[in-house]
Specification:
The complex is a heterodimer. In chain A, 65% of the residues lie in helices and 0% in strands. By secondary structure, chain A is mostly helical. Among the domains of chain A are: 3-53, no CATH class; 57-85 and 93-118, no CATH class. In chain A, α1 (3-12) runs parallel beside α3 (31-48) and α2 crosses α3 (31-48). By secondary structure, chain B is an all-alpha fold. Chain B has one domain: Rna Polymerase Sigma Factor, Chain: A. Helix content of chain B is 73%, strand content 0%. In chain B, α8 crosses α9 (166-187). Classes of the chains: A mainly alpha, B mainly alpha. At the A-B interface, α1, α3 and α4 of A face α2, α3, α5, α6 and α7 of B.
Chain lengths: 192, 191
């Protein structure tokens, strides 16, 4: 063991009386390390100071009483807790239960409403198809749209726009039988 | 066969663990001075030391059902006290700057010294020197020195209780010893 190793061990043994055999062996043959150990030993003895931190009996008694009182308090609280097991219903007093119940009802209500709103099917509003042709207007699919020439002929012959030739009357083309029917059933003078 | 103080405390601790309040009160009486000395050396503040010592005993009573007896009861109690001091030092780092021993107000005056003024003065000076030294150490060195030098615990035990590697505890202790040697030389403390 070197002197450096020995001194390190001596410093770790500061305050102790017993030494490792290897350290003791080194000390037996090394005066310098022996002096180092003696210095450390003297310092430890001087510095232990057992009397320096000794409390007087009155102080000990006073402090012990304070500790006892604090432990009494802890024990009494613990006993009180044991004597009164937690009652779920008393814990759920009205002050806690009413807001809790309201919150639960609100959540359930919103859930149910959401469920039914999701299920409700809206009746489709009837919307008429756009009118583009005469067939559309009458709703008769069998109606055959007249061609343009037919339409023009109808417009030329059967509208108030038709201009009559000189000496021509609107009733010129009715038959004799038709005229008699008109004379017998209507005041023909008003018509003409 | 007469039992030593440590053996008596271990017996009392076993009874206290079973809920015997009288046994625990006896432990408080026997250990109060040592635990308060520890908290005073660790904090350098007499008022805090008294409070922390009482806190340590109350905490020990509360934790007693969980004490399995793997370590000595006294070591377990010192561990509680040291942890309380470390928490105190962390929370109130400003208090470390206060002048040491200025508020002991005779709390640590033992009856054996009060009748001998010279002895009382020597003890007071020694107390101040120790507090000055302890206060000069970083917290982990202080805890290692306190538990090893003043409480006689092994490095392995200190490492386990402080949650540090044994090598770290040894390093901290050795640095504290070197610091003490240096300070003693500077202040003329060495005999």
């Amino acid at each position: 063991m070197s002197c450096a190793e020995c001194r390190q061990q001596l410093e770790l043994s500061f305050g102790r009386k017993q030494l490792d055999p290897a350290v003791a062996e080194h000390l037996a043959r090394c005066a310098e390390c022996r002096a180092h150990w003696a210095e450390l030993g003297g310092l430890a003895d001087d510095f232990r100071g057992d009397d320096a931190f000794r409390l007087g009996p009155d102080t000990v008694e006073q402090m012990a009483r304070r500790v006892d009182r604090r432990i009494d308090l802890i024990e009494s609280v613990a006993v009180a807790h044991q004597a009164q097991p937690v009652d779920l219903w008393s814990w759920l007093s009205w002050a806690r239960a009413v807001p809790a119940a309201a919150a639960v009802l609100l959540v359930v209500g919103v859930g149910i409403a959401g469920y039914w709103l999701g299920r409700w099917e809206v009746e489709p509003v009837a919307v008429s198809a756009p009118v583009e042709t005469t067939a559309d207007a009458y709703g008769d699919e069998a109606f055959e749209e007249p061609d343009e020439l037919t339409v023009q002929l109808l417009l030329d012959n059967f509208t108030s726009e038709r201009r009559l030739n000189a000496g021509e009357s609107l009733l010129d083309d009715i038959t004799e039988e038709e005229l008699r029917y008109l004379e017998s059933n209507f005041d023909i003078g008003v018509i003409l | 066969m007469a039992t030593t103080a440590y053996e008596e405390i271990e017996i009392l601790a076993r009874k206290a663990r079973l809920g015997d309040r009288n046994a625990f009160s006896r432990i408080v009486q026997l250990m109060m001075s040592k635990v308060t000395a520890l908290t005073y050396r660790m904090t350098g503040d007499a008022d805090a030391a008294v409070d922390l010592a009482q806190d340590s005993f109350v905490a020990a009573w509360e934790k007693l059902p969980r004490f399995r007896g793997e370590a000595r009861f006294t070591s377990w109690l010192y561990q509680i006290a040291v942890n309380k001091c470390l928490n105190y030092l962390n929370l109130a780092s400003t208090r470390r700057n206060r002048s040491l021993g200025d508020s002991d107000a005779g709390v640590f005056e033992s009856t054996s010294t009060t009748h001998d003024p010279v002895r009382a003065l020597h003890v007071k000076q020694l107390r101040e020197d120790i507090l000055e030294f302890m206060n000069s150490l970083p917290e982990m060195q202080r805890a290692a020195f306190e538990l090893r030098f003043y409480q006689g615990m092994s490095f392995a035990e200190i490492a386990r209780q402080l949650g540090k590697a044994e090598g770290t505890v040894k390093t901290n202790y050795r640095q504290a010893v070197l610091k003490l040697r240096q300070l003693a030389g500077e202040k003329g403390w060495a005999s």
